[in-house]
Amino acid sequence: MTITKTQEGTKLTVAIEGELNTNTAPELEKEFETCLDGITSLVIDAQKMEYISSAGLRALFGAAEVMQENGDMCVINSNDEVKNIFEVTGFVDIIDVK
Amino acid sequence: MNSLEIPAEKSRLIEVTDFVLGFAEKFGFDKKELFQLKLCTEEIFVNVASYAYKPGTGMITVTADGSNDPLTVTLSFIDSGIPFDPLAKPDPEKNRSFSQAKKGGLGIFLTKKLMDEVSYMYQDGKNVLTIKKNHSNAESSHE
To answer: How many CB atoms lie within 10 A of CB B65?
Structure first.
């Protein structure tokens, strides 16, 4: 998995490339621990995210919990398979998936 | 039937998902179904790796069986750890908060949602969790 961060003012885009699974999700959680300070808008770009499991969902829920206090969060460009997982788990009901 | 016996350790995850996909790809499943099989394999394997032999370690056996007519695959995950029925756990609440959503239970919930059959039995000192995925014609034309 590769994480690419792009910040414009208080808006942060985090592009996730590859597999967000049990073994890679802790890396993303670690990023979120430090990169969300002062951010009011978080965009997760899932265009190159090939796969997500419940561990990945939990990492995104963690970021959403922080952003609930500070601003907004959305997930963009996810492929059909990943979107299916967001829908089945009810992720789409609590996080904005575009 | 194909089978893989491997230490139930998270670091071995890729070997397990590769085994399952290598088997399932021989049949006519579409991309979405292969994704779902891989996902459920991870969820079950990681549960066993995390809890079955706590605080020690142990082995897991994964068996794979399938047919083309009807197109279906059946996977069993067998461990000799602490007796545990993951299906007995209630599903996560629908309108949950983020902190509730971060807690466990999501993996087995996904497995129940994405597979056509999920069953558990404790037999001869072993936990046996079996999942079955049928090919859906409706989904295959969705791409």
So the answer is: 15
Fold for the domain defined by B2-140: Heat Shock Protein 90 (3.30.565)
CATH topology of domain A2-97: Transcription Regulator spoIIAA (3.30.750)
Interface confidence (ipTM) of the complex: 0.93
Are B107 and A81 an interchain contact pair (Cβ–Cβ within 8 Å)? no
Q: Say which residue, B92 or B65, is predicted with more confidence.
A: B65
Q: What is the DSSP string of B42-55?
A: HHHHHHIIIIITTT
Domain boundaries, chain A: 2-97
Nearest CA-CA partner of B57 in B107, B5, B7: B7
CB contact under 8 A, B106 and A85: no
Band (pLDDT 50/70/90 cuts) for residue A52 is very high
Q: What distance in Å separates residue B125's CA from the closest CA in chain A?
A: 28
Cβ-Cβ contacts under 8 Å for B56 (sequence gap 6 or more): none
Q: Where are the domains of chain B?
A: 2-140
